[in-house]
Specification:
Length: 207
Amino acid sequence: MPSIFDPTEQNKNIESKIIAGLERISRVFKFLLWDIAKNENLSPIQIQFLIFLLYNKPSRTYTTDIANEFNLTKATVSDAIASLEEKNLVEKHQDINDKRRYLLKLTPKGKKIAKQLSTWADVLKDNLKNFNQRDKEIILEFILKLIESFYEAGIITAQRMCFSCLYFQKNAYPNSNAPHHCNLLNKPLSIIELRLDCEDYTPIQAD
Ligand code: SF4
Protein backbone atom coordinates (compact mmCIF):
# COMPACT_ATOMS: atom_id res chain seq x y z
CA MET A 1 0.00 0.00 0.00
CA PRO A 2 1.42 3.45 -0.87
CA SER A 3 2.53 5.53 2.11
CA ILE A 4 0.52 8.62 3.05
CA PHE A 5 3.88 10.35 3.49
CA ASP A 6 4.66 9.93 -0.22
CA PRO A 7 3.74 13.31 -1.80
CA THR A 8 2.69 11.62 -5.04
CA GLU A 9 0.19 9.53 -3.10
CA GLN A 10 -1.03 12.58 -1.17
CA ASN A 11 -1.66 14.50 -4.38
CA LYS A 12 -4.11 11.93 -5.66
CA ASN A 13 -5.76 10.75 -2.43
CA ILE A 14 -7.79 13.01 -0.14
CA GLU A 15 -7.63 10.61 2.84
CA SER A 16 -3.83 10.59 2.67
CA LYS A 17 -3.79 14.37 2.44
CA ILE A 18 -6.05 14.75 5.51
CA ILE A 19 -3.95 12.39 7.63
CA ALA A 20 -0.71 14.02 6.47
CA GLY A 21 -2.22 17.41 7.35
CA LEU A 22 -3.19 16.20 10.83
CA GLU A 23 0.29 14.77 11.31
CA ARG A 24 1.77 18.13 10.34
CA ILE A 25 -0.47 19.87 12.93
CA SER A 26 0.64 17.34 15.57
CA ARG A 27 4.23 18.41 14.86
CA VAL A 28 3.24 21.98 15.78
CA PHE A 29 1.97 20.75 19.17
CA LYS A 30 5.23 18.88 19.75
CA PHE A 31 7.31 21.87 18.71
CA LEU A 32 5.43 24.30 21.00
CA LEU A 33 5.70 21.92 23.97
CA TRP A 34 9.40 21.27 23.40
CA ASP A 35 9.98 25.00 23.12
CA ILE A 36 8.61 25.77 26.59
CA ALA A 37 9.98 22.51 28.02
CA LYS A 38 13.57 23.44 27.25
CA ASN A 39 13.13 26.85 28.92
CA GLU A 40 11.72 25.24 32.08
CA ASN A 41 14.08 22.29 32.33
CA LEU A 42 11.08 19.97 32.18
CA SER A 43 10.13 17.32 29.62
CA PRO A 44 6.99 17.86 27.49
CA ILE A 45 5.22 15.03 29.28
CA GLN A 46 6.09 16.49 32.70
CA ILE A 47 4.49 19.77 31.57
CA GLN A 48 1.37 17.91 30.48
CA PHE A 49 1.21 16.15 33.88
CA LEU A 50 1.48 19.46 35.75
CA ILE A 51 -1.36 20.95 33.68
CA PHE A 52 -3.43 17.78 34.17
CA LEU A 53 -3.01 18.02 37.95
CA LEU A 54 -3.91 21.72 37.86
CA TYR A 55 -7.28 21.16 36.18
CA ASN A 56 -8.49 17.85 37.57
CA LYS A 57 -10.37 17.08 40.78
CA PRO A 58 -8.31 15.44 43.57
CA SER A 59 -10.32 12.24 43.07
CA ARG A 60 -8.74 11.97 39.60
CA THR A 61 -5.12 12.51 40.48
CA TYR A 62 -3.84 8.98 41.00
CA THR A 63 -0.97 7.64 38.92
CA THR A 64 -3.49 5.35 37.17
CA ASP A 65 -5.58 8.33 36.06
CA ILE A 66 -2.56 9.98 34.45
CA ALA A 67 -1.46 6.72 32.84
CA ASN A 68 -4.95 6.26 31.34
CA GLU A 69 -5.22 9.87 30.19
CA PHE A 70 -1.91 9.84 28.33
CA ASN A 71 -1.90 6.16 27.29
CA LEU A 72 1.30 5.50 29.24
CA THR A 73 2.39 2.72 31.56
CA LYS A 74 2.25 3.34 35.31
CA ALA A 75 6.03 2.86 35.44
CA THR A 76 6.61 5.69 32.93
CA VAL A 77 4.26 7.98 34.87
CA SER A 78 5.94 7.09 38.19
CA ASP A 79 9.38 8.00 36.78
CA ALA A 80 8.18 11.39 35.54
CA ILE A 81 6.37 12.06 38.85
CA ALA A 82 9.51 11.15 40.85
CA SER A 83 11.40 13.79 38.87
CA LEU A 84 8.65 16.36 39.52
CA GLU A 85 8.83 15.53 43.24
CA GLU A 86 12.58 16.13 43.20
CA LYS A 87 11.94 19.54 41.67
CA ASN A 88 9.43 20.28 44.44
CA LEU A 89 6.57 20.66 41.96
CA VAL A 90 4.46 17.64 42.97
CA GLU A 91 3.90 15.83 46.26
CA LYS A 92 2.32 12.48 47.08
CA HIS A 93 -0.38 12.04 49.74
CA GLN A 94 -1.35 8.62 50.99
CA ASP A 95 -5.01 7.83 50.30
CA ILE A 96 -6.78 7.57 53.66
CA ASN A 97 -9.11 4.87 52.25
CA ASP A 98 -6.43 2.75 50.64
CA LYS A 99 -2.93 3.03 52.08
CA ARG A 100 -1.39 1.39 48.98
CA ARG A 101 -2.43 4.33 46.79
CA TYR A 102 -1.18 7.89 46.61
CA LEU A 103 -2.93 11.05 45.47
CA LEU A 104 -0.75 13.44 43.53
CA LYS A 105 -0.93 17.11 44.35
CA LEU A 106 0.83 20.21 43.04
CA THR A 107 2.98 22.08 45.53
CA PRO A 108 2.47 25.88 45.65
CA LYS A 109 5.52 26.19 43.36
CA GLY A 110 4.11 23.49 41.05
CA LYS A 111 0.74 25.26 40.90
CA LYS A 112 2.36 28.55 39.95
CA ILE A 113 4.44 26.96 37.20
CA ALA A 114 1.51 24.87 35.91
CA LYS A 115 -0.60 28.03 35.57
CA GLN A 116 2.15 29.77 33.60
CA LEU A 117 2.69 26.74 31.36
CA SER A 118 -1.01 26.10 30.75
CA THR A 119 -1.08 28.88 28.15
CA TRP A 120 1.33 27.04 25.83
CA ALA A 121 -1.29 26.43 23.12
CA ASP A 122 -2.90 29.89 23.25
CA VAL A 123 -1.04 30.96 20.13
CA LEU A 124 -3.05 28.34 18.22
CA LYS A 125 -6.33 29.46 19.76
CA ASP A 126 -5.57 33.08 18.88
CA ASN A 127 -4.99 32.05 15.30
CA LEU A 128 -8.44 30.42 15.15
CA LYS A 129 -10.01 33.84 15.77
CA ASN A 130 -9.21 34.62 12.13
CA PHE A 131 -11.74 32.01 10.98
CA ASN A 132 -15.47 32.65 10.84
CA GLN A 133 -17.87 30.89 13.21
CA ARG A 134 -19.35 28.58 10.55
CA ASP A 135 -15.91 27.34 9.48
CA LYS A 136 -15.07 26.61 13.13
CA GLU A 137 -18.31 24.70 13.63
CA ILE A 138 -17.63 22.63 10.51
CA ILE A 139 -14.10 21.74 11.63
CA LEU A 140 -15.24 20.92 15.17
CA GLU A 141 -17.93 18.65 13.80
CA PHE A 142 -15.40 16.92 11.57
CA ILE A 143 -12.90 16.47 14.42
CA LEU A 144 -15.57 15.01 16.70
CA LYS A 145 -16.77 12.63 14.01
CA LEU A 146 -13.20 11.62 13.28
CA ILE A 147 -12.51 10.92 16.98
CA GLU A 148 -15.75 8.92 17.18
CA SER A 149 -14.76 6.84 14.14
CA PHE A 150 -11.28 6.20 15.59
CA TYR A 151 -12.91 5.21 18.90
CA GLU A 152 -15.35 2.84 17.20
CA ALA A 153 -12.51 1.28 15.20
CA GLY A 154 -10.60 0.67 18.48
CA ILE A 155 -7.75 2.97 17.39
CA ILE A 156 -8.08 5.30 20.39
CA THR A 157 -9.76 5.34 23.78
CA ALA A 158 -12.35 8.05 24.31
CA GLN A 159 -12.11 8.70 28.02
CA ARG A 160 -14.26 11.50 29.36
CA MET A 161 -15.95 11.91 25.99
CA CYS A 162 -19.63 11.44 25.24
CA PHE A 163 -19.02 8.53 22.83
CA SER A 164 -17.97 6.15 25.60
CA CYS A 165 -20.16 7.56 28.40
CA LEU A 166 -22.84 5.62 30.23
CA TYR A 167 -25.25 8.54 29.83
CA PHE A 168 -24.78 8.95 26.10
CA GLN A 169 -27.62 7.97 23.78
CA LYS A 170 -26.40 8.00 20.24
CA ASN A 171 -28.83 9.11 17.53
CA ALA A 172 -31.77 9.41 19.89
CA TYR A 173 -33.31 11.93 17.47
CA PRO A 174 -32.01 10.87 14.03
CA ASN A 175 -33.48 13.70 11.95
CA SER A 176 -32.71 16.53 14.33
CA ASN A 177 -29.93 19.13 14.49
CA ALA A 178 -29.27 17.75 17.96
CA PRO A 179 -29.39 14.01 17.24
CA HIS A 180 -27.81 12.69 20.46
CA HIS A 181 -29.01 12.77 24.06
CA CYS A 182 -27.35 13.00 27.47
CA ASN A 183 -29.38 11.15 30.08
CA LEU A 184 -27.56 12.91 32.91
CA LEU A 185 -28.07 16.48 31.69
CA ASN A 186 -31.38 15.28 30.30
CA LYS A 187 -31.00 17.23 27.08
CA PRO A 188 -30.41 16.63 23.39
CA LEU A 189 -26.86 17.25 22.18
CA SER A 190 -25.91 18.66 18.80
CA ILE A 191 -22.61 17.51 17.32
CA ILE A 192 -20.81 20.63 18.49
CA GLU A 193 -22.21 20.22 22.02
CA LEU A 194 -20.56 16.81 22.42
CA ARG A 195 -17.88 17.04 25.10
CA LEU A 196 -14.21 16.28 24.75
CA ASP A 197 -13.57 16.34 28.49
CA CYS A 198 -16.66 16.08 30.68
CA GLU A 199 -16.58 16.32 34.48
CA ASP A 200 -19.69 14.12 34.66
CA TYR A 201 -18.33 11.41 32.38
CA THR A 202 -19.07 7.90 33.59
CA PRO A 203 -17.56 4.97 31.72
CA ILE A 204 -19.97 2.35 30.45
CA GLN A 205 -18.00 -0.31 32.27
CA ALA A 206 -16.47 0.80 35.55
CA ASP A 207 -12.68 0.18 35.83
S1 SF4 B 1 -22.41 13.09 31.14
FE1 SF4 B 1 -20.97 14.31 29.92
S2 SF4 B 1 -19.82 12.82 28.73
FE2 SF4 B 1 -21.64 11.79 29.49
S3 SF4 B 1 -23.12 12.00 27.80
FE3 SF4 B 1 -23.47 13.67 29.25
S4 SF4 B 1 -22.29 15.38 28.43
FE4 SF4 B 1 -21.53 13.51 27.45
